[in-house]
Design brief:
This protein is α+β, with helices and mostly antiparallel strands. It has 19 helices and 26 strands. The strands form eight sheets. Strands 19, 20, 21, 22, 24, 25 and 26 form a seven-stranded antiparallel sheet that branches. A four-stranded parallel sheet has the order 8-7-9-14, covered by helices on one side. The chain has a four-stranded antiparallel sheet with strand order 15-18-16-17, with helices on both faces. Helix 1 packs antiparallel against helix 3 and helix 10 packs across helix 16.
Length: 649
Amino acid sequence: MKKVTKVVKNQSISMNKTGEIFGLDNRNFKNITSKIQERSKITPLKPSKVLQGRRSHMSQRETISGNNIKSSDISPLNKTAISALATASSQCFRSKNDFPRLLNSSSTDLSRRNRKSLDINARSISPSKLVAKSPIRITKLITNESVSIREASRIKEWASKAKPEIERMWRKTINCANGIEPYNVVFANYSVFIGKGNNAPLIRKLFNSRPWWHVIETKENANFIWTQWKDKQVLEELKCSTSKPQIRNDFDLTPLVCSYKAQIATRVYKSVDIDNLGLQLIRGSNSYVSLRSEKVNPETQRMHNKLENNECLSNKSELLSTMKKYYSAIKSEIYDKIPITFNVSGENDPEYKDFIKVFNKYDSYRGKKKSFQNLWIVKPGEFTNRGQGITVCKNLSEIIAILKPAESKSYILQKYIEKPLLINKRKFDIRCYALVTSINGVIQGYFYLDGYLRTTSTEYTTKDIKNPFIHLTNDAIQKFSTEYGRFENGNKLSYREFQRYLDSHYPEKGINFLSNILPKIRSIIKDTLIASFLKIDPKKRLHSMEILGYDFMIDRKFRPWLIEVNTNPCLELASPLLSSLIPAMVENAFKISVDSIFPAPLGQFLDACPMNRFELIFHQETDGKKFFECLGENANAYFALVQDNLTKE
């Protein structure tokens, strides 16, 4: 049997083997190799650096085992040679079980166990012998520049490697603040119940994008329960947390870096800036804190999309009571944030007497102040939304007419903002979103950076107070106007469009909505979360979350006023703006609350890279403790007052 030889002088490798290796006689094997040599026409090339490095350790003739030679020692053949070799070998080995799959191979493999030992010979070889080129080592050029996460996500190779790592970053960021660590699962089959109403198809679509979830028709066995309104039975079935959060002092808050580089061009690699993911809105927040984690089995966890005592914010009467106690405790004026408001159940209510005093005070301004009407808005104190039961009144008799028939009900009497900021002479309000989570007994609150404006269809005037198309911005009201959608698509405006309006109509004011108005809105929302965190989930259910809709108005002095908080904000996609904003907001909320507790199975992840627009503005272990420190000696009295109210409720 002939041996494969290596010539140190000429630095070339002979591939001349006998047909014995392949089960052929020498005659047939020569015919096959001659065809390959004629068609390939490859010139002899130098061996790879691996063999070159071994020259000094070899004698003139040395025999080595095939197991000692790596496939990288022999360089790739070109496509012409591979095609020729495949054609010729297919004729010879048609009946053999070990038919070589040469078309799928990129190099000559000399590391098979059954390969005969190779003899390295110092004899020169003919150029007509079949040889292979040495591999060219391509050096990666890694620059100091970086690319955005959006640009890198378009590169499939990078995305497939980096997405699992980004998912881990997401879960670690959220779960460290919740003090919980779900086990990694190889297989997962979570179930979700989705109730009817308020764009249930959108919720179904978002869960369908997670193949590890499936929709069921019963609540009993569901891991996640989504309903329009709070389901008390579901909440009562959820277990209560008994553990006390413990803050970690050794948590690393250095900026997150993706270990995978993105190949932008040939041999050009750049690092990926993952700050655009928005994780710094959470990790970089002053409210963020890391807790010692408790490991849990995700497949046994349950979650409801409603908080057990959300009435303390969403009920208009309780919102007023909650905020009064809070602002009184911190010695701040509530009516700098909320219009003057009274909760009245009838003429015999003590608060009704307080209302009469204020009403008469403002009534004395009639005639003294130009165009002052002393208008009041009357709303049901219990659960209402979408403009139901709201009336604008201009005198006391109209208010009394509403209160008398309903002595058992409570009503909100709120001073009407008579000089609101207008857009093209029409009234508007601002819809913002907040996410409140109670996971592992830890309350956190997030503010969504995007929102929208809701406009009316008719020019504003106080002379006609009975026309709802002038005074109520709710889409459920405005969509019945013949002017609906005439001025803005779906009567909606984005923050960016609102800024353009401010720039064109109030250039001398230099008002920047994102830096002058939105931070004030964010601050008021944070106040509501601090005021309610002790009572919104008093039993620390495992687990719950809720998306809340906040409505604000802006007066002509560019001051924001909190009007109400909604537990069931409309998720209908009534305009192109909402068609992009609302799905992104809900998906983001699920990413923080649902995906952190119910991780995807190993090797699976969402198609899109998660972009976060929720900013952490409240954590019970930071902001809650600061609040009690601020109260000082009055902290125990405030806590007792809250607990007393919970007992009565």
